Amino acid sequence: MGIRGLQTFIEEKLSLLNQFELHNCNVLLDGNSIYHQMYKQCHLTCLFGGEYDKFYRYCKQLFESFRICDVNAMVVFDGARLDNRKLSTVLERSQRRVDYSTRTSVNTDLSPLLLRQAFINVLDDMNIPYVSALGEGDDESVSLANHLDCYLIARDSDYYCYNLFKGYIPFDYLDINPIEKDSYHYLSAQLFTIDVLLK
């Protein structure tokens, strides 16, 4: 769910992120943070039925870019079980969304109800493997990324605190447009590893 202020701290200290060419590797994506962030990046609104078709095409572009760059992706979603700490955070955020949506008749900052399903449709159509954790997926995502020796891509400042063997790529710092170089294509990204923070 993120650590308040940590994302801003990292962004202000961009020296903590290293320029990186993402290609010919495996990546694991935090599904929940990715599809919400992608919807925001599309500048779509839930006022017109969610504009799922445009969202679908944008998500498909990401995974097509991965294929061009020989990047094998897999996705982990959060599950349904919540511990007490997570439950209080979810309830607080839900209440803020309800308060916000009732204060304005034109709300463009809410995610449409079927957003997750639209993202899963892309994964199914492109044969991208995905799983759901039993509860909060952060720990499982980190364990799986380390076990499979792959980079983790997300939009969640919690991952700055984990010891990811390959590293964490903040989704905001991943350009999904392939770049051609010599005999291969890559995606330009910024990579974070915990050892940089500890120096």
UniProtKB/TrEMBL annotation:
Coiled coil: none annotated. Residues 1-98 form the XPG N-terminal domain. It holds the Pfam family XPG_N. GO terms for molecular function: nuclease activity. PANTHER family: ASTEROID PROTEIN, PROTEIN ASTEROID HOMOLOG 1. Belongs to the asteroid family. This is XPG N-terminal domain-containing protein. It comes from Rotaria magnacalcarata.
